[in-house]
Amino acid sequence: MSNIENRVRDDATDGADLGDELVVRGRNVTKTYDSPLPFTRSVEVLRGADLDVRRGEIVGIVGENGSGKSTLMKILVGALDPDDGDVAVDGTAGWCPQDPLLYDRLTVAETFRLFGTAYGMTDGEIRDARDRLADRLGFEEFLDYRIDQLSGGNRQKVNLSVAILADPDVLFLDEPYTGFDWQTYLAFWELTEELTDRGVAIAVISHFVSERERFDRILELEGGRLTDVTDADLADRPTEDPRDPGSTAGDPESAAREVETDA
To answer: Does one domain contain both 57 and 119?
Structure first.
């Protein structure tokens, strides 16, 4: 049986050593997608994955297409139930999914109002956070545009900003910089550094990791399990710029998508 737990963080721990405070814990997480078609094999995506993320830490999760990275993240945020295993997240969580979960007919400003209200923020708090993020990521001129009028890069900026909007304790980011230009890409990493300095824990999914120094740790999801990736391992891997329009970094999990009917 699976168990997913979310606990409100005790503010009394704010002064604790960030490196010692575990805020994300996954144990023996498993998930199999059953094929809806006869004579077609099921896909066992996760086979006992374990994950720890500490407060103030940024962890990269890499793996081939179809390895289960997005599936794991959906389970961590509670958007998908595992078949087995335990997941616990301390505090509030923000999620930037690979495919933006935004309403096409709303404007950018209306989108922030919708999500901010759901988070329990006041109108003033929503406006201040929205304007700060829009200025930081460079989409302030598009606040009155509908979501379906945005370019892919600007839609992704809004997708990321909605995840950060309510100042969560933990951020789960699935290919967050796909489609970003160079300046926004740099702004993203500056922002994540500031967030981790404040104690926010961040897990980032990427197909390729081109800048090892930006992560505290890198884990690879292979064969349904997570393992640590060393500098020596990375030296033997191809690097690819996730902002390159020809990159495969933003591709969906092909194997899982073939059999997944309700993500």
So the answer is: no
Quick one: pLDDT at residue 257?
40
Please give the sequence-ordered ranges of beta strands (E in DSSP) within 195-249, or none if there are none. Answer: 201-205, 217-222, 225-228
The phi, psi pair for 25, rounded to 5°, reads -140, 120
Where helices occur in 25-176 by DSSP H, the ranges are 69-77, 108-118, 123-137, 152-164
Identity at 134, one-letter amino acid code? A
Q: How many domains does the chain have?
A: 2
Provide the strand spans (E) within the chain.
2-7, 22-33, 43-54, 58-62, 84-90, 93-96, 170-174, 201-205, 217-222, 225-228
Please provide residue 106's backbone torsions phi and psi, each rounded to the nearest 5 degrees.
Answer: -90, 150
pTM recorded for the entire structure:
0.82
Q: Which domain holds residue 106?
A: 100-167
Order of strands across the sheet that contains 2-7: 2-7, 84-90, 22-33, 43-54
pLDDT digits (tens, 9 = 90+) for 125-177: 999 999 999 999 999 999 999 999 999 999 999 999 999 999 999 999 999 99
Distance CA 138, CA 124 (A): 21
**Cα–chain-centroid distance for residue 84?**
21
**Same domain membership, residue 179 and residue 80:** yes
Which of the two residues, 43 and 121, has the higher pLDDT score?
A: 121
Tell me how far apart the alpha carbons of residues 243 and 262 are, in angstroms, rounded to a whole number. 28
What's the angle, vertex CA 80, arms to CA 77 and CA 84, rounded to 5? 100
Share the mean pLDDT of the chain: 85
